[in-house]
Design goal:
The complex is a heterodimer of chains A (219) and B (222). Chain A has 219 residues and is mainly α. Chain A has a single domain (3-215), classed as MetI-like (MetI-like fold, Orthogonal Bundle), CATH 1.10.3720.10. Helix content of chain A is 80%, strand content 0%. The radius of gyration of chain A is 21 Å and the shape is flat. Chain B is mainly α and 222 residues long. Chain B is elongated and about 80 Å long.
């Protein structure tokens, strides 16, 4: 290992690190919004849209992100829809994540015990009050572990971005190995940067999980 | 739309062969992972501190690293560091087995620790021997808890094998790219048709397995 090599690579890695984080978190943001909408569509059995949401979940949960990105980035321009690589990355990650998040939220909504609904109605709450004050908070607490796991999963999936020539961490490592053959240094820095990115998320996720588990009622 | 290119020559057959190449890697890795996962998972429930620290460290490292990084470490890193020349296919089987074993071991550990002590105590008090307790009481419950999740892990491994094209294995995506390149002049829109087909192929492979996992999970809920 050569410290000089590591220092000279550092600026490129830092730049790639922030690009990965930026696109990763935009993608995760999209997936959260999409996941909530899709979960509601399915939970309330909205006609037509609920069915479409179901098809969307199955399609995106059962195909790899790499294939989805290739379709978005190389396939769609052929029918006149051109999307730049960074938008494509965030969108692909958002679409993939949306299907996973929706599944997590939906099972959270479904696993609120029926006795909660019955008790709330017996106490004279309206349907709206029941949903906002009872079902939503409990469903949220129930779906936190799945959401945390999904966020980490999606951050890991960002490593696929290099395939559509986004200059992320993976792309940088591959590029440097190809250019200078300092394989060991390039790979060690790659691992180090992924640890810097993922370990804090994992630790924060664990703390949040413990907090909401403590607050959960009747379970 | 670019679908016509699939019916030229033996393009469709080549795509299927590419898919089979990817599926073969996942299949071998799944078998190794189930076998090693059962052993590592059982080790993780042992009282021994050293074993626990080692297995825990292995699990955490493998799970926090993107599979693509692991592929690069094994394919480029070990060859450089140890001077071994390994084929891309061997490295990918090593990586997916290491990853699958970690995931499988965690499932086994979870299932083993989720069986309450009262199950053992009740069967002993009913006069069952230790072997009978395991065969008739514990193992059936463990299988019910583990099987749906393990089947789900298989679909995850199939999806992840699409990454092997990044270290130069000719699988379905690579074949797709070759077909698109070869027909650049005659059908310039081939990329849409070919990648849509590959998307659909992966779906056809993974969807039934996901459905089976969901079905078993529902059936054995209680």
């Amino acid at each position: 290992m050569d410290t000089e090599v590591i220092l000279s690579y550092l600026p490129r890695y830092i730049e790639a690190f922030f690009l990965t984080i930026r696109i990763g978190f935009i993608g995760i943001g999209i997936s959260l919004v999409l996941g909530v909408i899709v979960a509601f569509l399915i939970h309330f059995r909205i006609p037509v849209l609920g069915k479409i949401a179901g098809v969307y979940i199955e399609l995106f949960r059962n195909t790899p992100l790499l294939v989805q990105l290739f379709f978005l980035y190389f396939g769609l321009p052929k029918i006149g829809i051109s999307i730049p690589a960074n938008v494509c990355g965030a969108l692909g990650l958002g679409l993939l994540g949306g299907s996973y998040m929706a599944e997590g939220f939906r099972s959270g909504l479904d696993s609120v015990p029926a006795s909660q609904t019955e008790s709330a109605l017996a106490l004279g709450m309206t349907r709206k009050q029941l949903f906002i004050n009872v079902i939503l908070p409990e469903a949220f607490a129930l779906s936190v572990p799945a959401t945390v796991a999904n966020v980490i999963f999606l951050l890991k999936e960002t490593s696929v971005f290099s395939a559509i020539s986004l200059m992320d961490l993976m792309f940088t490592a591959k590029d440097l190995i190809g250019l200078y053959y300092n394989t060991t240094e390039a790979l060690c820095m790659l691992v180090a940067f992924y640890i810097i990115m993922l370990v804090p998320v994992s630790v924060i996720g664990n703390i949040v999980e413990k907090k909401v588990r403590f607050k959960m009622l009747g379970a | 739309m670019g679908f016509e290119v699939l019916f030229k020559g033996n393009n469709l057959i080549r795509l299927f062969e590419g898919l089979l190449a990817a599926l073969r890697i996942s299949f071998i890795s799944v078998i190794i992972s189930i076998f090693c996962g059962l052993i590592v998972g059982t080790l993780m429930t042992q009282e021994n501190r050293v074993i626990r620290v080692i297995t825990r460290g292995y699990l955490e490292f493998i799970r926090i690293m993107p599979q693509m990084v692991l592929l690069f470490i094994v394919y480029f890193g070990t060859t450089k560091a140890l001077g071994i020349n390994m084929s891309a296919e061997t490295s990918s089987i090593i990586v997916f087995s290491l990853w699958g074993t970690a995931e499988m071991a965690d499932l086994v550990r979870g299932a083993l620790t989720s069986i309450p002590a009262i199950q053992y105590e009740s069967s002993y008090s009913l006069g069952l021997t230790s072997a009978q307790t395991y065969v008739y009481v514990i193992i059936p419950q463990i299988i019910r808890r583990m099987l749906p999740l393990s089947i789900n892990l298989i679909t995850r491994m199939i999806k992840t094998t699409s990454l092997v094209m990044m270290i130069g294995i000719v699988e379905v995506l690579k074949v797709g790219q070759q077909i698109i390149e070869a027909n650049r002049k005659s059908s310039p829109n081939a990329a849409f048709g070919v990648f849509a087909t590959i998307f659909f192929l992966y779906f056809i492979v993974c969807w039934p397995i996901s459905l089976l996992s969901k079905y078993l999970e529902k059936k054995w809920e209680n």
